[in-house]
Amino acid sequence: MKRQLACAAAALLLAALTPAAGATPTEADAGGSGCRSGDRLRVPGAERTVAACLPDLTTAGTIASGHTDPADWAGLEAPGTRSPSGVPGIQLDGYFPDSSATNKTHGWDHDSQFVIRLPDRWNGGLVVAGPPGIREQYANDRTIGDHVLAKGYAFAATDKGNTGPTLYRDGKRPGDAIAEWHFRLTQLTVAAKAVAARHYGRAPRHTFAAGMSMAGYLVRWQLENVPRLYDGGLDWEGVLLTRKSPNLLATLPPALRAYPRVLAGEPGAREAMVAAGYPAESEPLWESHYRTQWDSFQRLIREELDPGYDGATEAGTPFCREGTGKGCDTDYDYASRPRAVHDAVGRVSLTGRIARPLLTVHGTLDALVPIGPGSDRYARLVDRAGRGSLHRYYRVTGGNHTDGLYAAHPRLVRPLLPCVRDAFDALAAWAEDGVAPPPSRTLPRPGGGDPVNSCAL
């Protein structure tokens, strides 16, 4: 599968960069005064493309003009987060051919939707992203898009080819929906490079992949499998999928079993949570994660990779009690599942064999993707693969999986977004100017200042 995707990426690149017969440069293609010919831009391979000339491509402008969806990034940033604005340019919305229809944005009822933003003042770079979890193509607008657009980068984002709580219905074999995520990010990267080249008159000098959670996992996979498309990547608390435990399917069920025992005051319950990778200090965050994330995330990913566990039932039984038995995700034991299940996970597994610079940022109090069996382990995989010189890993004391919980726990949770933005700047300096980023380390809690908007690696 990895070889097939890599070959497909090469074919996409060749097709996208081959001029169409009879094509002639437009004023926008030649880098002229921008938006007047934006409607002539086409995205290679896209089934539909709609162009808009906007006075501001950042969320300060696109919220007002209707060229973003704030629901896509809801809960991902801390209240009081400041973002730059005032970046005029062209926005391209559209979709690639696809047979699934989980994404209802724009009333298109069509998956593989994308957004590409081309600022008038371009610095020669491109940033490409996928959304976290089951979100759609605008999920990174506040967290990644605003920052990089203000610095002059073109920005492109995909919905990963399937979205929402039934994404596991996409594809024929276990793991197909996740495998499509990789293809769609590769596809968009190739297409966005070609669009930028046509619009500005030259190809991007530097291209970066960026993403959080499941999209952080995608960044790792891209740098392992199609590194020639990128100059580096930013991985924000990426999910770890590996054939061997611990992996995502091995960390969530122990939490589902142990937390009700914590509530009941049973001896050893907290110790069981800690043994599963959830730091004791993160206990105030467990309740919200138990109610809204652990169960649904486990059932969604398990249904995609191991649909036979619950028979004909789709996505298991919500909040089934420990001891229910087969079909209950609370009792799920990845290690004992058949070889076919491990093979399905193996199809989409990470190895640590990155071939381009990667910066990882992860919070020590992540209560969804625990840092110990998550990014700590991925860093070890990178080292064992002999790629440690390409990796920088910043563990942020107090960081949780989403910054939205900072409002409810301001003395416990430290927002990660300012550290992520600083990490992107460090990645760009490394790839573009040869300035090595700070060594990997654990960032202590700040003694003062504005933790919502400031962080220095």
Summarize the structure.
Helix content is 33%, strand content 13%. The protein is of the alpha/beta class and 457 residues long. The longest helix has 25 residues, at 176-200.
Features:
single chain, ten-stranded mixed sheet, 10 strands
Fold and architecture overview:
The protein has about 450 residues and is of the alpha/beta class. It has helices spanning about 1-15, 60-65, 140-150, 175-200, 215-225, 250-265, 270-275, 285-305, 340-345, 370-385, 415-435, and strands at about 50-55, 90-95, 115-120, 125-130, 155-160, 205-210, 230-235, 360-365, 390-395, 440-445. Strands 1-2-3-5-4-6-7-8-9-10 form a ten-stranded mixed sheet, sandwiched between helices. The model is unreliable at about 1-35 (pLDDT under 50).
String of helices and strands: HEHEEEHEHEHEHHHHEHEHE
Strand content: 5-15%
- Structural class, by secondary structure, is alpha/beta
Name the helicity range.
25-40%
In the predicted model, the low-confidence regions spanning at least 5 consecutive residues are 1-33
Shape: globular
Which quaternary structure do these chains form? single chain
Report the major sheet.
Answer: 10 strands, mixed
Radius of gyration of CA atoms, rounded to a whole number: 21 Å
Strand order of the largest sheet: 1-2-3-5-4-6-7-8-9-10
Q: How widely separated are the two ends?
A: 37 Å
Q: How large is the count of helical segments?
A: 11
